Amino acid sequence: MADRLTQLQDSVDQIATQFFSALRYVSTHHDAEPVGSEARMVDEGRTVDSPEVFEAAMNELARDLIVKSKQIEYLVTTLPGIGVSEDEQHQRLRYLEERLKEAEAERVASVREKERAREKLEEVIVNLRRV
Amino acid sequence: MADSNQGPISTFPDPPPFYTHFTPSNQATLRAHRSTLGLSASAPIPASSLPADSPLQYLLPPPPPLPENYWSFAEHWTSPERHPSLEEFGIQRLYSTEDEDEVAGANRVVELRRLSKSLLLSFLELVGVMGVNPEEYHVKTADIQTILFNMHHLINQYRPHQARETLCLMMEDQLQRTRKETEENRAAVRRVEEALLGVEFMARTVKQGEQLDRPFSMESKEEKALEKAKLKDAQGWHLIMDSTQ
């Protein structure tokens, strides 16, 4: 999964694509109205949807746009580290680095302790077998 | 270069041909040259101190790029590195900022939300314009384009911040993992020590029991030792079974 910022940028790109496809749908699927007494214009290159289908499709496109817009707003409000200044981040990083060094030293010591305990146990077992 | 067309196409260009001069012997010569000049290990060697046609010239680091900007892999870079502002691309900036480079975190959220609202509104206007006067579309599409550029710019400016934040989270994660491992190791040590204490205790009881049972049976020393060994052996095997579970 991409990080929040990439998700946000993808959503922005997607909404732009949706703008395009919405307009394109309207321009390629709309019906023509006769003007005055002229005959109804017929465009062979266009698929005309029935009024109900056209209306439903437009509703859906509009709803999708709103949903996408809401999604963008949600992603914006959940950006990581909002309200944390750069200095605070640097401080936290330094603090964490110190803690990590300590923890690592402790870990190495504990591994050594474990190794010693294992040796002791091994010794006892070997002695037992010898007796 | 007939065969260069047939060879596999690599993602990156070949290294410059002078990389072959970076041999251990050349580096040793350069070190010797440095010490004859009496320079410390970090001080740069002046290029004029080497003969101009010497391959050692290639081993000297090139001068740093000139300030302002430079090109690398067909990309333009500024030196020192920074995020170019929108104005440099000739795009109108739609958000307000007190500081030229950085928009504060909370402010950025407000600005991004405002931009996303404007984006939707601009689209609505575009649809309206298309319905009334389709020839005029370019005014609105230009608006939408500017808003999109602004949004992307704001988001990209935020990336270093997010990178630091992610690093913080990763470090916290690692800290927890390390502490957990330490804890587990210590628990294992404790278990082993407890088991050893148990064995010792048992061994002592057995010994005492033997002494009480047959305090005078000195003649059966060998037998006693054998029994003790058997007992200890059995306990030992139990212990092994316990510890391997």
From TrEMBL, chain A:
It is found in: Nucleus. The keyword Nucleus applies. Its main location: nucleus. InterPro entries: Med7/Med21-like (IPR037212), Mediator_Med21 (IPR021384). Gene3D superfamilies: Mediator complex, subunit Med21. One of its GO terms (cellular component) is mediator complex. One of its GO terms (molecular function) is transcription coregulator activity. SUPFAM superfamilies: Mediator hinge subcomplex-like. Residues 86-131 form a coiled coil. Pfam families: Med21 (PF11221). Keywords: Activator, Coiled coil, Nucleus, Transcription, Transcription regulation. One of its GO terms (biological process) is regulation of transcription by RNA polymerase II. Belongs to the Mediator complex subunit 21 family. Component of the Mediator complex, a coactivator involved in the regulated transcription of nearly all RNA polymerase II-dependent genes. Mediator functions as a bridge to convey information from gene-specific regulatory proteins to the basal RNA polymerase II transcription machinery. Mediator is recruited to promoters by direct interactions with regulatory proteins and serves as a scaffold for the assembly of a functional preinitiation complex with RNA polymerase II and the general transcription factors. Component of the Mediator complex. This is Mediator of RNA polymerase II transcription subunit 21.
TrEMBL record, chain B:
Component of the Mediator complex. It is found in: Nucleus. GO terms for molecular function: transcription coregulator activity. This is Mediator of RNA polymerase II transcription subunit 7. The keyword 4Fe-4S does not apply. One of its GO terms (cellular component) is core mediator complex. Component of the Mediator complex, a coactivator involved in the regulated transcription of nearly all RNA polymerase II-dependent genes. Mediator functions as a bridge to convey information from gene-specific regulatory proteins to the basal RNA polymerase II transcription machinery. Mediator is recruited to promoters by direct interactions with regulatory proteins and serves as a scaffold for the assembly of a functional preinitiation complex with RNA polymerase II and the general transcription factors. Keywords: Activator, Nucleus, Transcription, Transcription regulation. Pfam families: Med7. Belongs to the Mediator complex subunit 7 family. Residues 1-20 are annotated as: Disordered. InterPro entries: Med7/Med21-like, Mediatior_Med7, Mediatior_Med7_sf. It comes from Sphaerosporella brunnea.
